[in-house]
Amino acid sequence: MGLDGLLVEMSGRRGLLLPQVAREQKWDRETFLDHVCLKAGLKAGDWRRGARVWVFRAQVFAEGGPA
Predict the structure, then answer these.
(1) The CATH number of the domain where 31 resides is what?
(2) Quick check: 37 and 47 in contact, CB under 8 A?
(3) Which residues have CB under 8 Å from 42's CB, separation 6+?
């Protein structure tokens, strides 16, 4: 966890979470999927019921002090 972000889409609703969210919250894979569904306004677990899920790799940049 922590390298890949998620985008979910179902019934015209979309939600996106960056990879650092799962890492900071110490979520496992299923919890991450549930929360991206909730962000899209869907029900937790809709990723199991036909929602489309995309995985993407993100690079996080910070200015100044440690990231």
Answers:
(1) 3.30.1490.150
(2) yes
(3) 8, 10, 11, 13, 15, 51
Write the burial class of residue 33 (CB in 10 Å: 0-12 exposed, 13-18 middle, 19+ buried). buried
Number of domains forming the structure of the chain: 1
Cα–Cα distance, 26 to 14 (Å, whole number): 23
Q: Averaged in consecutive runs of 10 residues, what is the pLDDT profile of the chain (67 residues)?
A: 88 95 93 97 96 91 71
The whole-angstrom separation of Cα 39 and Cα 8 is 9
Q: In the numeric block, which tokens belong to residue 60?
A: 């996080």
What distance in Å separates the CA atoms of residue 32 and residue 47, rounded to the nearest whole number? 11
